[in-house]
Amino acid sequence: MDLRLPSKVLEHIFSFVDSNEDRNSVSLVCKSWFETERLTRKRVFVRNCYAVTPAAVARRFPGMRSLTLKGKPHFADYNLVPDGWGGYAWPWIEAMAEKSPSLEELRLKRMVVTDECLEKIAASFKDFKVLVLTSCEGFSTDGLAAIAVACRNLTELELRECIVEDLGGDWLSYFPETLTSLVSLDFSCLDSEVKLSDLERLVSRSPNLKSLKLNRAVSLDALGSLLRLAPQLVELGTGSFSDKLDQEAVSKLAQVFTELKELKSLSGLWDVLPEYIPLLYSVCPGLTSLNLSYATVQMPDLVELLSRCSNLQKLWVMDLIEDKGLEAVASSCKELRELRVFPSGADVDETNVAMTEQGLVSVSEACPNLESVLYFCAQFTNAALATIAKTRPNLKCFRLCVIEPFAPDHKTHQPLDEGFKAIVESCKDLQRLSVSGLLTDKAFEYIGTHGKKLRMLSIAFAGDSDLMLHHLLSGCESLNKLEIRDCPFGDTALLENAAKLETMRSLWMSSCGVSFGACKLMSEKMPKLNVEVIDEHTPETRPDSSAVEKIYIYRTLAGPRLDMPEFVWTIHKNPEIGVSHLAIE
Amino acid sequence: MITELEMGKAESELELGLGLSLGGGTAAKIGKPGGGGAWGERGRLLTAKDFPSVGSKRAADSASHAGASPPRSSSQVVGWPPIGSHRMNSLAAKSAREEEEAGKKKVDDDEPKDVAKKVQVGFIKVNMDGVAIGRKVDLNAHSSYENLAQTLEDMFFRSKPGTIGLTGQFTKPLRLLDGSSEFVLTYEDKEGDWMLVGDVPWRMFTTSVKRLRVMKTSEANGLAARHQEPNERQRKQPV
């Protein structure tokens, strides 16, 4: 008896399967499930744009409505990936324009997006609704104008930390009067001033507008008039918060803020003057997310503000908050889930020394839901790490950046091995970890032994030898992304554990000691990986024993990429280079 | 528990392991004198200088929009600390503005900052020519020039077998104090002058030193001439 369910029934069942992880499992069951699943998948995530070809994706998912793509490796955020490396959105947009013209949503991260790309989107996808660009570059405000003018049903346009060639604020004026569907607009990363009257008109004809993130050029005065038009906002990113207003204007502004009954998220606040902080008090109790990481607010004012934020779940702030401020957070913000503390100076010397490891300890001890931490600090101790581990075993993401490289425990002068051991032992669900400070191979032995759920690991200036890498690659079963810079090891551990790399999304290593010969060997033996050597000096002319500057290795079904610049080498450029004389001295 | 990579036969080929076991046919490349293979040859930390046309372009481009030059951290290392470009530019613009307003506004938290800074008083910065990353050393933990020199030698030319110091070189006694090596130890005193280490009694040194620099001997000759103190040209006896 044929027990196969008819595809209509399968379709119906699968419509309840949201997560792509589940959908991926579903598609592995059998051919008919694979077929039904692929025809019904609407949201597609490609987390490495070079892992698969655009054509293959379009072919497999003809019903795709939403596409999310990531391009450059994470360390590109810190200028470690040279310009011109790749991550071009064009091939994807071109392919989708032809094969998936019903595409409605495009979310790109760390990709090169040109004005041509934006014009193509505007011209090709009739029902385009959502464009979210995070850490992208390569386009100008002209491209934005193209999107504005053509996308009749646009609901979201968000530019998060993009590098945009800013030709002026005119682009905003291209939104037609007929566009009334806007739900979210984020142009916080742009510099130029937009025409206020056009912005006001846009806001007033957008009844569904829930999220508005302005750029710095929008004055405080302008903010007031905008908020009057959009009291329904859930997310607000202010512009500059520093104009001198007279008393009447200030009280009017205060009044406007009290009308924001739905506001849950607040950001921006550039240059905020201390005397304006009380304006925010009325919205504090409702806030679940507060981003003060660009606001130069000093500790006493921060305490006043944060002690009113009893529902806060996410807090991003600078180290101006100091230990005292974090103590206030600990006592007031019991719902806190995510804390990020950024340095207020770009230099080690400029780190605020009134913020120490104690700040994080206070928050860890007092906030039971804390699960995600990013903490920049001048120095740390094993004892603090142990306390954090003990009090917060529910941590999922722990990124500690001790700004001074190789800094030991500042009380005992020991490496921070034992501290991180405590973290990985206790936090059994830890998925993301960044380590720093003085670390020996022991630390990585601990991580390999205990970090079984670890998916992403970032390491800089650490370890003593190849053992470090061996522990990680052989021990961390769930490891998906590994990024390493300036660690002293060579080829052995990498080659020993090469098979592991096929189970991971990617591996980045820069300023380490991997030789050109090892790269060649890996390329030869592991055809399902792209082994990219990123090196200013073309490695073909160098001996096998020479160390390469940067390596980026990722699994792929797409084979060698066709858009490699001169400074990126894979074996496909010189397939004739044999691996027979791999005498690595 | 594996504590050391097994040094198998001295082999001429690396083999690709399947991650099933470590050792057996592959020898550890580290620990070999003369510069540990690949690491030794390029045994220095790369800096922004190594990518004159790449890498920092993104920051430079965006900075020109932000109206400020990309900040250079004192150690001149690309991408450290790991702050995104947008944030970096914001910090650069901020410090530029603060310099403008210097003196106009008193920082409220001056007091606690000073107190906290005192905790660090024993530590001074050490930089070495050709090494991007500076270190800090605790003067209070040392009793003599010999002591200090030893620590610095360990720090920059780590002599533990199988490990690699910041410069990737192994077990070379440095002899920072007797003028016989490639490098000399110098310091900046409270007046801002750079002197060869060892010319004053230790205790006097610890009170007047601001920071240290392991300088190439070739450059240090200029130093002696500038100060025109003949005794600095000769080898120093540690006091």
Structural class of chain B: alpha+beta
Number of helices of chain B: 7
The shape of chain B is elongated
User: According to CATH, what is the topology of the domain at 123-159 and 171-219 in chain B?
Assistant: Ubiquitin-like (UB roll)
Give me the count of strands of chain A: 23
Give the % helix of chain B: 25-40%
Name the beta content range of chain B: 5-15%
Mean of pLDDT of chain A: 93
Reading the helices and strands of chain B in chain order gives: HHHHEEHEEHEH
Q: Work out the largest interface and the residue count of each chain.
A: A-B, 95 and 77 residues
- Tell me the Rg of chain B in angstroms: 23 Å
> How widely separated are the two ends of chain A?
66 Å
Spatial separation of the terminal alpha carbons of chain B: 47 Å
* Sheet of most strands of chain A: 21 strands, mixed
Q: Using the 3D structure, state the CATH architecture of the domain at 123-159 and 171-219 in chain B.
A: Roll
What class, by secondary structure content of chain A?
alpha/beta
Q: Could you list the spans of chain B in which at least 5 consecutive residues all have pLDDT below 50?
A: 1-75, 106-121, 159-172, 224-239
State the oligomer.
heterodimer
The CATH class of the domain at 123-159 and 171-219 in chain B: Alpha Beta
Helix content of chain A: 25-40%
Report strand order across the widest sheet of chain B: 2-1-5-3-4
